[in-house]
Batch of 2 targets.
Target 1
Amino acid sequence: MTELILLKYFIITGTSRGLGEAMALQLISPEHRLICISRKKNDALMAKSSHLHYIEYDLNNIDGIETLMEQICRQIDMANAEGIYLINNAAVLAPFSRIEQASSQALMTSLHVNLLAPIVLTSCFIRSTDHLQIEKRILNISSASAKHLLPGMSVYSASKAGLDIFSRSVGLEQGNEPTSVKIVSVWPGMIDTSLQEEARNASQDTAASADIFRMVKDRGMLASPAAAAKQLIKLLLGHSFHQGSVVEELRAEPGT
Ligand SMILES: NC(=O)c1ccc[n+]([C@@H]2O[C@H](COP(=O)([O-])OP(=O)(O)OC[C@H]3O[C@@H](n4cnc5c(N)ncnc54)[C@H](OP(=O)(O)O)[C@@H]3O)[C@@H](O)[C@H]2O)c1
């Protein structure tokens, strides 16, 4: 008789680089199946596992997300799943400028990718897994920028504050029934990725904010993506994943 192997499925957005790539790399295991999403395919990541399905998708395209979720669900054998996890990680920093300097296009993209796409993905995820009495968790990667404000980052901060409130609200809706989806928002700390690099490159009107990001880098205060990913996975799979919470204190050791 063949033994039934129960699998954990991870849907991760923003896996072409940075934190998303680091989380995907650490989640690779024979008992895990990964569904990775970004605009640009990550060939190096794909080469590491035959249990990884990559979908090239632009999350600025909100209208296509329901179809995207159908495509994702086709990769999941619901009967053999012991857990399904959605990590809303993809985000953009732009526009890193005073609000009157930002184009309406850039403002829309920011809110689409950082807030509306995670909202629609959450809605589709809950609808698609409603009937399953297995572990179902959503981790929204937010930011301390939801609370700590800097000139030039108004729309980024607004999107992350929105993500935190959204997570708390959906947590309330879901409650603690056996079929509930658990949802948490987390501030991952400052991490050495291309997003930080972008923040160090000032335009004239955000020079003071860029100085702060340069100082943080110069003082060795940035964690590596791998160290931050380790903490996030511990949160996602551990006992401290409290329904509707916003985890502000997750910190990887800088320089690790
Ligand atoms: N780095 C930090 O210090 C820091 C601090 C607090 C919070 N965070 C949060 O951590 C998360 C990861 O950030 P990171 O630092 O790893 O950033 P990153 O290196 O810039 O990576 C961002 C990822 O998001 C994807 N992405 C961007 N726009 C997309 C779109 N339109 N459609 C699909 N995917 C898109 C990118 O892939 P493509 O370009 O290939 O699409 C990339 O894989 C974000 O939510 C960020 O807000 C970061």
Target 2
Amino acid sequence: MKPPPVLSDVTIEELAKNPYPTFDRIRSMASAVWVDSARIHLVTRFDDIMTVERNHHLFASTNPGSLMNKVMGHSLMRKDDEPHKLERAAVEPSFRPGVVKQHWAPRFRSIANDLINQFEADGETDLFSSFAAPMASLSLIDLLGFEDVAWEDIAWWSQALMDGVGNYQADPEISNRARRASAAIDQAIDHVLARHVETENPSILSSMAHAGHKHSREQIRANIKVIVGGGLNEPRDAILTTVLGLLQNPEQLAQAQANEKLFARAFEESVRWISPIGMYPRRVTQDTVLGDTRLKAEDQLGICVGAANRDTGHFEQPDSFDLNRTASRHLGFGAGPHFCAGTWVARQMVGEIAVPILFNRLTNLRLQAGNSPILRGWVFRGPIALPVRWDR
Ligand code: HEM
């Protein structure tokens, strides 16, 4: 058993441009590798991540020093055991598959169609700004139970919070923006909370207000902020990567167009192929061993599900997008007690609605020649633009 090896020749910019060669390198080195530039031990092997997620007493989400707690308040994502369970149960009614299908799906469908109406006649667009970002934002406004909030505002709040959570260099400008976003979200909650307390409905705010375990205003605020921060860029990025995967693999697109059920498989494959959340943190609670590596209490781990989802021990030709894969169990939604609460929402919004409607309505949808899409990020990853054309 050895201590974690150190990787000192990888920059954050390299990781943000294309993390996969570094992920491969780390996976071949050890179960946990200290990466100097990221200032964290990265865990990249599928089986090691499963071990971490099965042992949350050794690998905790609770993290007293976490920047997320400072920026958003102490949310369910940084709790374990009973405190986590109670707050998780409070949001779950809005996310149940039946509620998603009956209540949210018609709303998502109408948002998707309204957005396409606005650019259909143009014959070309950047799907990031005209479709994926407003689709994810408008859906989230409804899911939360917010009113009188513009999609551009919630998108800005979300980005400002996420920048704040990653602000390890303590840049005052970033901290200030995150504080402003946080205050704006508090106001948006105060604007509607009384109505949700009065009348029960499927929104997340209503679920929290009517939870068996009474929530303080601080708990409601922190958990709403976590969902604003974490429930927007992932579906946005998954819409774009699913479209990208299909457009780059025309024979698979033809298959999906012949059998619409395959769009859901394409979505699932896109979350494996380019995981929108590439890394999330855990804290080691006592001296222990993970795979071939010795870890010490208080070591911070970066759980790289984006890397595990390309582990050749689990996936054949993992760098390829392939909706016909038989081994489909991936870690794109995490695992264990913190497994993504919004999985059914994302599956419905992206795989069953946004992507099939786009391909159905925009004939011969294709990437703009000579304008290749750029992907960025390793903690969060997705296309930063997706310029496309179709036949008018
Ligand atoms: C493709 C879309 C999505 C992906 C890939 C994704 C991915 C993830 C991952 C990997 C985690 C685990 C993080 C950790 O363990 O620290 C997570 C947690 C979570 N996600 Fe998602 N997510 C998506 C969409 C959504 C949506 C649309 C919502 C809500 C509207 C949402 C709400 C949550 C919440 C509340 C948690 C925390 C759960 C807990 O701590 O118990 N997610 N998500």
